[in-house]
Design goal:
There is one protein chain. By secondary structure, the protein is an all-alpha fold. The protein has a single domain, classed as Four Helix Bundle (Hemerythrin (Met), subunit A), CATH 1.20.120.550. Helix content is 74%, strand content 0%. It is built from five helices and no strands. The longest helix has 31 residues. It is elongated.
Length: 142
């Protein structure tokens, strides 16, 4: 049962990969359009220069991809601590998959309709699940 806790971590890796592909599938055509319009892409090489340059539908996907390298890094760490201490149980599995489902929904919402309150709610719910996993493991270990 202990190895089952690694499946949600792999799911998050797949989600990050899908978002990376989606980001480039939208960003490359948008970059070509900008270049045809006379933009010097080299001047846009730093991320801070990109704000507002691409259409919102392109930026939302890139923003989500970047977000998948923020909060989920703690998720990966917690998953590996649970796994290393062989503490996997049914509750951890439900929590881990709930976290994945919330992050998946967050990605879909941010990359499509980008409704702020829905996105914020999903973000906060995912934090609650992640914090619960973290503090439960802290209580177990200490």
């Amino acid at each position: 049962m202990n190895n089952l806790i690694l499946q949600p971590a792999l799911f998050m890796g797949v989600l990050s990969t899908i978002m990376m592909i989606w980001m480039y599938a939208t960003r490359l055509p948008a970059s070509k359009i900008l270049q045809r319009q006379g933009a010097n892409l080299q001047e846009l090489s730093h991320p801070s220069a990109l704000g507002g340059v691409f259409p919102s539908k392109v930026e939302r996907v890139a923003d989500n991809y970047n977000h998948l390298w923020e909060q989920p890094t703690l998720f990966y760490a917690v998953i590996f601590v649970i796994w290393a201490h062989q503490n996997t149980d049914t509750l951890y599995l439900y929590m881990a998959w709930s976290y994945c489902a919330l992050r998946f929904l967050h990605s879909v919402v941010q990359s499509t309709i980008n409704h702020v309150w829905i996105r914020f709610s999903l973000f906060m719910l995912s934090w609650i699940v992640l914090a619960s996993m973290l503090f439960r493991e802290i209580l177990y270990l200490f």
